[in-house]
Specification:
Layout: E1 2-5, H1 10-22, E2 29-32, H2 43-46, E3 56-58, E4 64-66, H3 68-77, H4 89-117, H5 123-126, H6 137-160, H7 171-186, H8 195-205, H9 208-211, H10 221-225
Parallel strand pairs: 1-2
Antiparallel strand pairs: 1-3, 3-4
Helix pairs in contact: 1-3, 1-7, 4-6, 4-7, 6-8
The structure holds glutathione (GSH).
Amino acid sequence: MKIFDRPGFPNPARIRIVLAEKGLEPQVEFVSVDLIAAEHKQPAFLEKNPSGVLPVLQLDDGTYIAEATAITEYLDNLDGDPKLTGKTPKEKALIHMMQKRAETELLDAVGDYFHYATPGLGAALQVFKSPEWAGRRDWGNRQRDRALGGMKYFDTVSRSHPYVAGDAFSMADITVFAGLMFADAAGIAVPEDYSALTAWRAKVSELPSVKNRSGQTFVTEDLRRLGF
Ligand SMILES: N[C@@H](CCC(=O)N[C@@H](CS)C(=O)NCC(=O)O)C(=O)O
């Protein structure tokens, strides 16, 4: 299998955590795609994923699978013993629901703030964002407020459950973790009184699948070049 990604970016990090959880890293070849140079918006990459985003999984038979959730489901079920996406119908449904909330209210909200209210990934890439949005910082700033609302929600969840979808670490935790990782880079701090969310994050950071990758923060050499 091949994974087209870029180390240090939040959505690729989701899959690296999944691979570590499942012990699949030795079976994967990583192919680095230069996001800052907009390589993912060129025809060769768009053939793999028309959405023009990372990560993308390529199977040995040539099939391409995009979307972090779809890739996670595939990898988690390969050995017939899913541990991140649920075993029973109820577990699957709860993890799906919480994962979707984490994506919509936190990770994607941070991403929209980053792309539309800050210089984002820089000049080479901004031309691929729709021009009518270019000056709309107000809309982008509202996405920051949405992300803060997401943090508040997950702080509340963390007060009553050890993990985002219940008693076990799952795909939903990985999405929240990636959302906070992205928020760090975009300059959206977790409010100090969200102590349960901060404690949850500290706990998740210590998991071997996450801890071994803690050097892969979003602010890599790529973003330092952009002034982060
Ligand atoms: N919904 C997608 C989101 C993927 C995504 O936005 N990836 C980012 C990297 S963290 C990306 O490729 N951004 C490039 C861009 O927005 O042009 C998924 O779950 O895989």
